[in-house]
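> tool_call: predict_assembly(chains=two)
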Amino acid sequence: MVERLSDAERKAALLELGNWRHEAGEDRIVREFVFADFRVAFGFMTQVALQAEKAGHHPDWSNSYNRVRIGLTTHDAGGLSEKDVALARAIDAVATRMGAR
Amino acid sequence: MVERLSDAERKAALLELGNWRHEAGEDRIVREFVFADFRVAFGFMTQVALQAEKAGHHPDWSNSYNRVRIGLTTHDAGGLSEKDVALARAIDAVATRMGAR
């Protein structure tokens, strides 16, 4: 069972991640990515899906053509956990490789 | 340039599709699919992505674990067009193959 981040841990994580916005109500982090077109956007999603499946931790996300919006939280923990921070880091690395803006 | 469906055409299309709900405000059709798990849900999305890319017509969609929600409209036509009906038919066929409920 993974634990929810403390206030101090959450602040440190958000500072490190930089581009993710915290939604306090649901204690989730959200980021939107824009790619060249649908093909690149879905390629990005495919890489994230493989990472998520491997980690056993999945995003809530939406896509419209070249835009992908991702929300991360840990339902079992009732909010943000280290799993979300780790997945966010992995997502950011993929996004950089795929030329997200 | 594809044309928006007439009222009569839209009614006939909705009757044929059966499981799609019409959202009048944006003149779009929406359906939610539930699969066994994330792996199957994302496999479904991958097949739909390939169909959409081939058709040059893309869904607005979201995914949360085993659930996929899809909205279809044709922005260039200002509402539903034959492109949406064709993509909805293709999506339904994939969903059936993938055991959607």
